[in-house]
UniProtKB/TrEMBL annotation:
<protein>
    <recommendedName>
        <fullName>DUF4231 domain-containing protein</fullName>
    </recommendedName>
</protein>
<dbReference type="Pfam" id="PF18181">
    <property type="entry name" value="SLATT_1"/>
</dbReference>
<feature type="transmembrane region" description="Helical">
    <location>
        <begin position="55"/>
        <end position="75"/>
    </location>
</feature>
<feature type="transmembrane region" description="Helical">
    <location>
        <begin position="193"/>
        <end position="214"/>
    </location>
</feature>
<keyword id="KW-0472">Membrane</keyword>
<dbReference type="Pfam" id="PF18184">
    <property type="entry name" value="SLATT_3"/>
</dbReference>
<feature type="domain" description="SMODS and SLOG-associating 2TM effector">
    <location>
        <begin position="168"/>
        <end position="241"/>
    </location>
</feature>
<keyword id="KW-0812">Transmembrane</keyword>
<feature type="transmembrane region" description="Helical">
    <location>
        <begin position="220"/>
        <end position="238"/>
    </location>
</feature>
<dbReference type="InterPro" id="IPR041116">
    <property type="entry name" value="SLATT_3"/>
</dbReference>
<feature type="transmembrane region" description="Helical">
    <location>
        <begin position="32"/>
        <end position="49"/>
    </location>
</feature>
<keyword id="KW-1133">Transmembrane helix</keyword>
<feature type="domain" description="SMODS and SLOG-associating 2TM effector">
    <location>
        <begin position="11"/>
        <end position="164"/>
    </location>
</feature>
<dbReference type="InterPro" id="IPR040884">
    <property type="entry name" value="SLATT_1"/>
</dbReference>
Amino acid sequence: MEIKINDQDLPGLYQSADSSSLKEQKKYFKGIAYYLILLIIAALFAFLSDSQEYPIFKIISTVLFLATLSITIWLKVSRPDDIWYNGRAVAESVKTRSWRWMMRTEPYFDCEKVEEMRKHFINDLKTILRQNESLIGKLGIEASIEDPITDKMVEVRKLSLQERFDLYRKERITNQALWYTSKAKFNKRKSSIWFWISVGLHIVAIILLLISIYQVHVKLPIAVIAVAASSVLTWVQAKKKQ
């Protein structure tokens, strides 16, 4: 019977850390996205306010800038990016330890008393969590002992050396390589799209600047385009962390 290792076959700490990491990652990028969008809209209303007799557009622009300030403070105080990084680090550390335990490799070698290896593994999970203190508040230290060793892990550990070797090569090495290759291609396509959007906005800004040289009395949204271009660049830089 072919054995497959899925996320639910790994310890509860892995699933908790992975889920927390993905959740905080989404929060972080949503915060950045809202900040940049509101910044562009605020710049647009500030531009439009110059041609308005009433201050409504200036008021709207001020409110939007206050909103972007609030988002900046929230990102600084809540630090979703820290929890994202630490959650990812914990999840990957737990996964590595889990595979070592299943494969009976260092430090979980064959032992007559399997219970000793269980205790050793659980203590290692607690140590991993303690080394990433920002996650303890999110997950709690109890997360390290929630389903620490699943039935599938025990089943794999009982396999012969050759069976474990074949399983590791397929489920760990090959699958991981395929995942990273696919992710790299996807990120490269997305990065290319945003790059050309940034180039397009810069070209528009240059054209508007050239027009303003000859049309001195025409008010053009050059500052708005510049904010949009810098926002795209900020977004691209933020996505590089992913």
